[in-house]
Design goal:
There is one protein chain. By secondary structure, the protein is of the alpha/beta class. The strands form seven sheets. A twelve-stranded parallel β-sheet has the order 1-2-5-8-11-14-17-21-25-29-32-35, covered by helices on one side. The chain is globular and about 90 Å long.
Length: 492
């Protein structure tokens, strides 16, 4: 009888575990296509198996917490922690290469202090005039807000500025926001916030289209939009040579929409420069659940991403879907929709001196992108760098990262002198933690320079005069590794 009972219990145990194994496999198949990191996989698997075995579910949840706890932003997010990027308090743009044309003493100023006066001034402003918005809160509702059809010029730009930088809020309940379709507009010092009940309505704060060459957007904040800045063609006109610098982009909650969630979305425009911005929390829960911090696509030539801080997720909460840092070609479009029917999404473009962190997918993605250069970036807690599809060619060097550098689907990739750090889920250990101060919170002051010495010695020197992530001058022919050459004054 004793032997029979032992055999019976053993058989029941084997059958029970077999059943749980089948359920687990089924659950894995169900959630496997939805997740992008090990912790999220175990978390969703636990939810799947919980109705069948509470004990097994708790074990999976415990393991999920163990492998994800230290890999997400731990401190309260505070943009002032990075004093060299984001909006600056002074009235003069700090970048030495910014060309915000000074106004002559005789230039007329239009001062507005209510929503109606503002929308009227936008439609009536003349080249060389400045619209000054008095400090305060302005609620604007409508599908879009159009501007004057009289174009600005290099000598007579049109400016829309806050009376005091950061003290003007434009609360937009609008699909497109302000539509800039004329050249030489300057937008400065304004806090834009989307107030739409539906996330699919607050698509853009600024829609820059057609003939809007030489648009400059500086020292603003943008919150709760899908694509806060959207750039694209209109007919056969293309908005070229724009500048987006010293801004903050973010969302207070994930976007529940099927529209593209990409705070900076540059389509069709050549020679756009995106620099010294803070871009954070751009999670998409609707549609394909794929989002990007910023991308350029649509037959673009000559774009640059530099000196930006991109944090896909500043919370410790896990979300489904795929969050990508910076991208050339992400979101792709058909060849017929690209500029001049190009067979590429971007060409002759550069990513340099950016810090990208806490993304559950790759930090840098380049697809259908020709002659791309990716150098001196620092990627923390991302899946690394992907270059994809046969037309793509990329030179990737002097970067510091977790994850991998990978050529996919017959892309051509030249990789040199990249420090790829170890990353152990099981031991909850990120190798970059031994090199930098508290990188999980965005502090990348070097604590172990000896770990970088060999890479710095082998680094490819710069071919032009640049500025690192912290704004420090890097002379031509200087060699360094990662986004930071010097960290003095860079972190609080």
């Amino acid at each position: 009888m004793h032997a029979f009972l032992k055999k019976y219990l053993l058989t029941c145990g084997i059958l029970l575990n077999a059943i749980l194994l089948v359920i687990s496999i089924k659950g894995a198949a169900h959630v496997g296509s939805q997740v992008n990191n090990l912790g999220e996989f175990f978390h969703l698997s636990a939810q799947w198996i919980k109705p069948y075995s509470e004990t097994s579910a708790q074990a999976l949840l415990s393991f999920s917490e163990r492998v994800t706890r230290a890999h997400y932003f731990e401190a309260p997010f505070e943009p002032s922690q990075w004093p060299t990027i984001g909006p600056q308090p002074s009235l003069q743009a700090s970048s030495p290469t910014t060309s915000l044309t000074a106004l002559s003493p005789s230039t007329a100023t239009l001062t507005v202090d209510n929503p109606r006066a503002l929308t009227l001034a936008l439609r009536q402003v003349e080249p060389g005039q400045t619209i000054v918005i008095r400090d305060g809160h302005y609620a604007l509702k409508g599908k879009r807000f159009n501007i004057s059809k009289k174009p600005g010029t290099a000598l007579l730009p049109i400016r829309l500025i806050a009376e005091t930088r950061g003290n003007v809020t434009l609360a937009l309940d609008s699909r497109e926001g302000i539509v800039i379709d004329q050249p030489y507009w300057r937008i400065e010092g304004i806090h834009f916030i989307g107030t739409c009940h539906s996330h699919s309505r607050c698509d853009h704060a600024l829609h820059i289209v057609g003939d809007a060459d030489n648009t400059r957007i500086a020292h603003n904040t943008f919150y709760d939009f899908n694509a806060a800045i959207k750039v694209n063609k209109s007919g056969i006109q293309y908005p070229d040579q724009g500048l987006i610098e010293h801004n903050i982009f973010g969302n207070h909650q994930p976007r529940n929409t099927h529209y593209s969630v990409t705070p900076i979305n540059v389509d069709h425009g050549n020679d756009w420069v995106v620099r010294k911005n803070i871009i954070h929390d751009f999670i998409k829960l609707g549609g394909n659940r794929v989002s990007y911090g910023a991308f350029m696509k649509g037959g673009v030539t000559g774009g640059i991403f530099e000196q930006n801080l991109v944090i896909c997720n500043t919370s410790q909460q896990r979300y489904p879907g795929s969050q990508v840092g910076l991208s050339f070609g992400g979101g792709g479009m058909s060849q017929a929709s690209r500029r001049d029917n190009a067979n590429f999404e971007v060409s002759d473009t550069i990513m340099r001196n950016n810090i990208i962190m806490h993304c559950n997918d790759v930090g840098i993605y380049s697809q259908k992108a020709v002659d791309v250069t990716v150098h001196n970036n620092t990627l923390y807690n991302t899946a690394g760098i992907d270059v994809r599809f046969p037309v793509s060619t990329a030179s990737v060097y002097n970067n510091i990262l977790n994850g991998r550098i990978k050529a996919r689907d017959d892309a051509t990739l030249q990789s040199e002198n990249n420090l790829i750090s170890t990353y152990s889920f099981i031991r909850n250990n990120n190798g970059l933690n031994a090199i930098f101060s508290t990188p999980q919170n965005g502090i990348f002051s070097v604590t172990s320079p000896e770990a970088l010495i060999d890479y710095a010695i082998e680094a490819k020197p710069t071919t032009q005069t640049l500025f690192d992530f912290c704004g420090h001058h890097i002379h031509q022919n200087t060699a360094y590794i990662g986004a930071i050459y010097q960290d003095a004054g860079c972190f609080r």
